[in-house]
Amino acid sequence: MRKWVFWAVLLLLLTADAVWSGTGIVGGRGGLRNADLPMESSSRNNELLAITPDQVYRGNLLLVNREYAVHAEGVATDIIKLSEHPELREGYGLMDHSIRLSKEVAKRFGGMVKAAAGDGVSQFLISSGYRSKKEQEQLFAQKGSDYALPAGNSEHNIGFSLDIGSAGQEMSRAPEGRWLREHAAEYGFILRYPEDKTEITGIEYEPWHFRYVGLPHSLIMQEQHWTLEEYLAVLKERQSYSATVGGKTYIITYHAVSGNTVIPVPADRGYELSGNNMDGVILTELPSSTE
Ligand SMILES: [Zn+2]
């Protein structure tokens, strides 16, 4: 009799779980997520999306550091030589003609320097962008582990990072450096190795190294004073995070990825998906245009 009750309860739990996923309520992990959300969110229209394991290693939010190396699928597929695209390199200089970057990131950077010029700050100079693993290997051999990361462990190996200098003076004091520290987050970029976070990043202060992560993530990190390491840890721990940026609310959720993972995504609005390069994907639900 007891056994029967046990199986009945188990079956009931399994059924309840199936119904829960079937309705596509986002992040039904112990209800933690829904408690964080405005009421309307739980009634949103969702559909299920199958996630393949390689998606953990693609996207704007990849964490690349000494611990987590770049996977081949993480390298930007739109790497271009900036000197060959005059339309993308207005308003800043290049230290040499071989500098490459993701085309998308170059466009965002171009928009950002245009805004800086509007504030009278215009002496930007890019000294480094995308580096192949081989180039990183040579740099590592030249500079050693105190000043360079091993091949495959540098953000420069994915094409979303760039070293930005000033033609006027040293970046930590230059108006270009100051402007970027203040405004880069509005354009999707973060100062990746801040002065007071060297223990977390494991890298000395680099006032020149900026990384593209996209909006709204850059603004959240700036507002909360989080490095990428800290931001991704918070998302994993809370599993759900909602942020209001420019009067619009974004819902950001972490989903662990194992062999066969299916996650609910909005059916009636846009979303972005990025791996964290560790163990999961981050889903960013974009605000609907009516909000
Ligand atoms: Zn750099």
Polypeptide structure, described:
This protein is an alpha+beta fold. It has helices at 2-22, 32-36, 103-118, 133-143, 175-183, 198-201, 217-224, 228-238, and strands at residues 46-51, 79-81, 92-94, 100-102, 124-128, 161-166, 189-191, 209-212, 240-245, 248-256, 261-266, 271-275, 280-285. The strands form 4 sheets. A 5-stranded mixed β-sheet has the order 3-5-6-8-7. Strand 9 (240-245) and strand 10 (248-256) form a beta hairpin. The longest helix is centred in the first third of the chain and has 21 residues, at 2-22. The structure holds zinc ion (ZN). Zinc ion (ZN) binds at residues 128, 156, 161, 163, 209.
Radius of gyration: 22 Å
Q: Could you tell me the mean pLDDT?
A: 86
Instruction: Show unreliable segments.
Output: 1-43
Oligomeric status of the shown chains?
single chain
Could you say which overall geometry the principal axes of the C-alpha atoms support?
globular
Bound molecules: zinc ion
Instruction: Give the CA-CA distance, first to last residue.
Output: 54 Å
What's the total helix number? 8
The major β-sheet equals: 5 strands, mixed
Strand content bin: 15-25%
Structural class: alpha+beta
Question: Helical amount among residues, as a percent range?
Answer: 25-40%
Number of strands: 13
Strand order of the largest sheet: 3-5-6-8-7
The secondary-structure element order is HHEEEEHEHEHEHEHHEEEEE
